[in-house]
Amino acid sequence: MSGQGQRLVVVPTVTMLGVVKARLIGATRGHALLKKKSDALTVQFRAILKKIVMTKESMGEVMRASSFALTEAKYAAGDNIRHVVLESVKTASVRVRSRQENIAGVKLPKFEHYTDSSAADSRADLTGLARGGQQVQACRGAYVKAIEVLVELASLQTSFLTLDEAIKTTNRRVNALENVVKPRLENTITYIKGELDELEREDFFRLKKIQGYKKREIERKELEARLAAEISSNRFAMPLGSAGRNILVAGGEKDEDVIF
Prior knowledge:
The chain is mainly α. It has a single domain, classed as Orthogonal Bundle (Helix Hairpins), CATH 1.10.287. It contains 4 helices and 2 strands. It has helices spanning 14-77, 81-88, 117-122, 133-259, and strands at residues 94-103, 106-115. The chain has a two-stranded antiparallel ribbon. A hairpin with a 2-residue loop joins strand 1 and strand 2. Helix 1 (14-77) runs antiparallel to helix 4. It starts with 13 loop residues before the first helix and ends with a helix. This is V-type ATP synthase subunit D. Keywords: Ion transport, Transport. It comes from Zostera marina. Pfam families: ATP-synt_D. Belongs to the V-ATPase D subunit family.
């Protein structure tokens, strides 16, 4: 789905233009922040991936060493080593606790191993066995190291999956803002500006027409007034002029009779 050629259904007013511009500014800032968040998560994702590869490579060596230490302990202590260990251990001394780490707003689960001192003190010391006590302690140390590596690997893989999902979600939001939301808002702003310009041109044309109509009305009224004044002046001037000419003509004739 793309926002090219699409716009919001709005009323083209100046107020709506300001609202859409504010939304475009917010979308631009949100896109920039989400882009930075995606970059930060990607950097952390690659770092965790590198640690996972290194941890898996070391895990093979640790598991091989722990298996070899168990074989040595069985060879030195005999077949009854399992029963002796199970009877002497009451509670687990190595435990795992979880916490959360915030990376660019994403909470990543972290697992940490720790040793319970009370359980370790209450545990019977296996070095007092009749034979193989040293090998049993070496085997225990090898498996504790293996547990530490497994806990670290579990923490890394859990963070890896969480970051992968967060990066996918963030990238979807970035793409939506970049390809859908921002183009729609920009098209809406262009549409509103075009409609406002068209309304402004219509108002200007309407004003020009009104001014032309008023000017023609004023000229028509002036012409009518001028014609009315000329007609009225001619109406009173023409009869007086004829009478005057008749009187002058009659008077001239009388004078001629008197002279001759």
